[in-house]
Amino acid sequence: MTLDADRPLDPTPLFVPAPSAVWLEIGFGGGEHLAAQATRNPGVGLIGCEPYVNGIAQLLVRIRDQKLGNVRVFADDAHRLLAALPNRSLARVFLLFPDPWPKRRHHKRRFIRPETVAIFARLLAPGGELRVATDHPALGRWALFHVLGHGDFAWPAQSAADWRKPPADWVETRYEAKAKADGSVVYYLRFFRR
Questions:
Q1: Which residues contact 192 (CB under 8 A, 6 or more apart)?
Q2: Options 77, 99, 135, 152, the catalytic residue
């Protein structure tokens, strides 16, 4: 998948037949989550962003072996793709186990920050979902602060169980399995575009 610098990228025509919705996964790692979502949701078009060749290669093998026709790969920095997508073009965005950049001086490198939250608000259709998962408590608080601080997102959690249990259609990633094996608590944050 490539970008034309002169015009926005409408993601719907990337898929044949046209999908009922388009979902985006940023930083798909080895692609296990993305491939499983594509298998479970054949009518949805999924775009995965990943700059690292090893992760891209793993996903491409999954796409080939599972014959997934509803996945497209953007092998570059997700910020470039986000800038090219038109308003309200996505129904769901996944940001699963992003680098927490734990040192204070590196917080500016975190993917979730005011600028990207504003972009998510622009790209998600009303009712669209932003899913964030992390095993880093400070990053979980950071995500809550920045996403809810934007004002265009609702967080429907009513109790701790709402962010401690994964959604019903959850697919465990290898990062998640490793975190749980190490005894870490995983935070499953779901935000919906107002």
A1: 127, 128, 129, 130, 153, 154, 155, 156
A2: 99
